[in-house]
Amino acid sequence: MKPHQYKGWLNAKIDNPEQYKQQVTTVCQVYRNSIQMESSGCHVCCTDEMTGVQALEHIHEALPMRPNQVECIEQEYKRHGTTTLIAS
């Protein structure tokens, strides 16, 4: 058993497969052509949103690593609610 390894999947419900395929193709073409688009003055930006991220704070500071000993991190933490992370 390897509990540190896992595989994820998403069971997406696609109402119109042809429309979905066309949208995916368009996005992939933009990524492929982004360098050429930049040279013609077009700026390509990718944005992703991660909702419901828990805002956690460790109660105790980590103990630094020492010779022959790895860093020790306390597993107890304080919750500060949730937040949304947006990256571009």
Sketch the topology as an H/E string, one letter per element.
Answer: HHEE
Tell me the total number of β-strands: 2
* Shape category: elongated
What's the helical proportion of residues? 25-40%
> Counting H and I runs of at least 4 residues, what is the number of helices?
2
**Largest beta-sheet details:** 2 strands, antiparallel
Mean pLDDT rating: 88
Q: Strand arrangement, largest sheet?
A: 1-2
Q: Output the structural class.
A: alpha+beta
Q: Oligomerization state of this entry?
A: single chain
What would you report as the Rg, rounded to the nearest angstrom? Answer: 22 Å
How many domain modules? Answer: 2
- First-residue to last-residue Cα separation: 37 Å
Unreliable spans: none
Q: How large is the share of residues in beta strands?
A: 25-35%
Explain what the structure shows:
The chain is α+β, with helices and mostly antiparallel strands. The chain has two domains: 12-45; 47-88, no CATH class. Helices cover 25% and strands 25% of the residues. The chain contains two helices and two strands; from the N terminus they run H-H-E-E. It has helices at 17-32, 34-39; strands at residues 48-58, 77-87. A two-stranded antiparallel ribbon has the order 1-2. The longest helix has 16 residues, at 17-32. The protein is elongated. The model has no long low-confidence stretch (mean pLDDT 88).
Quick structural summary:
With 88 residues, the chain is of the alpha+beta class. Helices cover 25% and strands 25% of the residues.
Secondary-structure topology with pairs:
Blueprint: H1 17-32, H2 34-39, E1 48-58, E2 77-87
